[in-house]
Amino acid sequence: MAVAAMGWLWWGCFCAGLWSLISGQSSQETLVQVPENSEARLPCKAYQGSPRRVEWKFQGDGSTTLFYFDGHFTDPYKDRVQFYPNELFFKSVTRKDTGLYICEVLVPPEDFRHSSVRLIVQVPPSKPKAQVPSVVTIGTKAVLTCVETDGSPPPTFTWFKDNIPMPQDPKTNSLFRNSSYTMDPKTGLLSFEPAMAYDAGDYYCQADNKVGAPQKSDTVRMETSEVNVGGIVAGVVVLLIVLGLVIFGVWFAYTRGFFSTPPAIRRSFTANLLPEVMVNLNRRLPSWSDLHSHVAFHHVLKSNLSLLLRLL
Predict the structure, then answer these.
(1) Which spans are transmembrane here (predicted)?
(2) Residues 57 and 105 in one domain
């Protein structure tokens, strides 16, 4: 029993030592947050003893660049960064300096170590822009967007309707229980699916990253409507104009003899078919109340196209 206990003890010590060795040679990330235009110190935890070589790399905007090597800084860091064996010293940081800095150290004989520092340059958010549709059709999807690009770290977003903050889950608040929407605080997207008559109102968004004061957008009004009455009216008017021009053109061609049709047929067309077409068109024109129905509009379109095919 004692032998087994000693075996487990030695095995535990071996694992602890191995883990210590691995962690000493792997990346150790340190978080540094400083306001814009202030000093910053980025430690190199991988530095030990008298290294043979020390290099720094910078990762930002999806790319990696060599920051310090062979005892020199690359542009544009020469005049505002100082190198020390165990750290980098920024005299003044800008928002473009936000990113990951990797310190790589080669210790004799061939012991390679590295550590990393994530620098976040704190920048208050600017005034966001609320992108809100002016009119949405009831029963369709409506997407509202809050846009802000200056804040660092990236801000979170909150939406307000009629000066009342909107909860992420509408079912948790009696004022929004009748609404159906989803909200993403990280992206600023507010989606109504489907939009309802209740969703009409004045909307604005707010951006906050805990650096400086929260910023609010301008207020934008969103209305809801059952159908696009204006589009239906415009479609009916265009349809009638096109049908009228086609009918007139065909009648003019027949009466002037442009088609090789016997005179008796032309007279029959002028005396019988043309008046019938005009009467049917007049009888099948939709009333103003019918324009509120997509079904009525489709019926008018189908019937008038049938008349046109019969005419031709």
Answers:
(1) 229-254
(2) yes
Q: What's residue 238's pLDDT?
A: 86
- Provide the domain limits for residue 196: 129-225
SS3 content of the chain, % helix, strand, coil (to 5): 35, 35, 35
- 31, 51 Cβ separation under 8 angstroms: no
The pLDDT score that the predictor gives to residue 271 is 56
Is residue 36 in a domain? yes
**CA 231 vs CA 4, 199, 237, 292: distances in Å:** 86, 22, 10, 11
Q: How far is the CA of 120 from the CAs of 55, 65, 252, 306, in angstroms?
A: 21, 18, 77, 68
- Where does the chain have alpha helices with state H? 2-25, 229-255, 263-268, 274-284, 294-311
Q: Rounded CA gap, 244 and 264, in Å?
A: 24
Q: What is the mean pLDDT of residues 260-275?
A: 55
Last residue of one domain, picked from the residues 183, 201, 225: 225
Together in a domain, 209 and 280: no
In one-letter notation, the amino acid at residue 87 is: E
